[in-house]
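Milestone 3.1: sequence recovery, worked example.
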């Protein structure tokens, strides 16, 4: 059925718009992505090194590799790792999910928003994960805390939307548990990540100050809630004032020197609501403060923990403008 008053399209020569350009849209201007640049596959006894800027937030695929070292020193969107055997993999900062499928005897250093394995076995994972890690139909999976540093890593965390303080590496959920058996475990306190994976001898990496040492890691080493050393426990909170992240990091480093037996069990960086603040701090005095922005919380435990934390906090606060941004709760 036509339109009674339809005039039809006028000829361009009549309208005088013969040279008019078609309207361009943003999706017409996007550069074509070469998927091969973001894929490592069918590699055996090799080494693959991706430097900062080479991935730049794209999706990445690793598949069908054997006896290969793969280092992604950049931020990515999501990463899938399929059918890899005896590989060593570093994924510096992944915004979304990292999914390992049908892999065995691999060592991985991974920071991501979500982590999952399926049909994997004999895997050693050093993890920083913003959410609860999940394993499914997997066995002999060992977990430890992520440790990595290079010059651009903190910026890559920010670009991936990750916080160095939000790490649930030890809170594993097993979708397919077997009664009487453990499909996963946490590494003992004595292990060193350097005994499981090493960095390539590259001048580029040396210029980036790349390191696997715990004391240099962008992500603070946490022991997890399962670790309950004898002694006191306390929560130290750093309220938002533009320097809370720097103060929290300075606090962690100073506490290691002040009292090595006082351990950092967990860390969080969250936006607190008034109800949550009242529940944690047992007062409404901080309701206005928590609305300023993100709060960094550190759960510490060990002998003389409270006194040590108070002492370090006073020392740290003298170097910053706002001393009231540090708060304690002992338990």
């Amino acid at each position: 059925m036509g339109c009674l008053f339809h005039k039809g399209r006028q000829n361009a020569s009549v309208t005088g718009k013969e040279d008019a350009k078609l309207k361009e849209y943003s999706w017409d201007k996007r550069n074509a992505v070469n998927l091969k640049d973001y894929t490592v596959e069918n590699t055996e006894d090799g080494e693959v090194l991706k430097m900062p800027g080479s991935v730049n937030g794209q999706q990445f695929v690793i598949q069908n590799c054997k006896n290969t070292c793969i280092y992604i020193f950049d931020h990515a969107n999501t990463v899938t790792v399929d059918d890899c055997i005896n590989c060593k993999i570093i994924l510096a900062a992944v915004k979304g999910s990292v999914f390992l499928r049908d892999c065995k005897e691999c060592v991985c250093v991974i920071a991501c928003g979500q982590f999952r394995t399926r049909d994997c076995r004999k895997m050693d994972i050093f993890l920083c994960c913003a959410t609860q890690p999940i394993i499914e139909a997997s066995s002999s999976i060992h977990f430890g805390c992520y440790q990595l540093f290079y010059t651009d890593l903190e910026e890559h965390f920010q670009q991936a939307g990750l916080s160095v303080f939000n790490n649930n590496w030890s809170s594993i959920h097993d979708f397919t548990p077997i009664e009487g058996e453990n499909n996963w475990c946490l590494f003992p306190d004595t292990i060193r990540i350097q005994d499981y994976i090493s960095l390539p001898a590259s001048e580029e990496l040396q210029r980036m100050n790349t390191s696997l040492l715990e004391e240099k890691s962008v992500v603070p080493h946490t022991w997890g809630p399962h670790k309950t050393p004898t002694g006191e426990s306390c929560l130290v909170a750093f309220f938002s004032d533009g320097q809370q992240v720097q103060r929290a990091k300075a606090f962690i480093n100073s506490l290691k020197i002040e009292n090595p037996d006082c351990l950092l069990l967990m860390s969080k960086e969250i936006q607190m609501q008034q109800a949550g603040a009242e529940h944690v701090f047992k007062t409404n005095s901080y309701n206005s403060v928590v609305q300023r922005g993100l709060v960094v919380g550190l759960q510490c435990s060990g002998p003389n923990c409270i006194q040590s934390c108070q002492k370090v906090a006073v020392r740290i606060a003298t170097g910053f403008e706002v001393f009231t941004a540090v708060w304690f709760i002992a338990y």
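The radius of gyration is 25 Å. The first strand starts at residue 39 and ends at 41.
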